[in-house]
Write a structure and sequence with these properties.
Blueprint lengths: L2 H23 L13 H8 L12 E7 L2 E7 L3 H7 L4 E4 L1 E3 L3 E5 L19 E5 L4 E5 L10 E8 L2 H6 L2 E6 L2
Antiparallel strand pairs: 1-2, 1-9, 2-8, 3-9, 4-5, 5-7, 6-7, 6-8
Amino acid sequence: MNAATLRALARAATATAVLLTVAACTDTSPTSPPATSSARQQTPTAQAPTTPSDRNSDMDIRVTLDGRPVDATLNDSPAARDFADLLPLTLDLEDFHQTERIADLPRRLTTSGAPEPAAPKAGDLTYYAPWGNLALFCRDGDSANADLLILGHIDADTDRLAEADRITIEAAP
């Protein structure tokens, strides 16, 4: 065999090895779910629809903004339940980008079992995990963020939310 034939055989052997490696690493069986399939995609079909009469996941809380009461609820997420364990709380709020009022919490909250990220709306009470702080949105947020966990909602107009300097949060009796 001459050198040219040996080079051609070496190239063919290398190409064959690469193809076999790719084929071995690729599962094309129809019973195997794609890599992007997750509980996230399966959750909507696994959950039965609920009506307000049979849903007890929200927890009423008592909230005052600058001494004036407002209606509020916490959701049933692990982070919201952990937050409820901190109550009662009185926190001084400060502006953050004219979109939220923020305050430091006494400790970090759990982030396990966090729901899918959702874009915050005005009135949402949230927890920003990287900083460990509470954020009350006075304007709608730009987009969903996996680090921002929505804990609940406060029913107040945006001007009142934007001007609030102090928040007191207590468990409802």
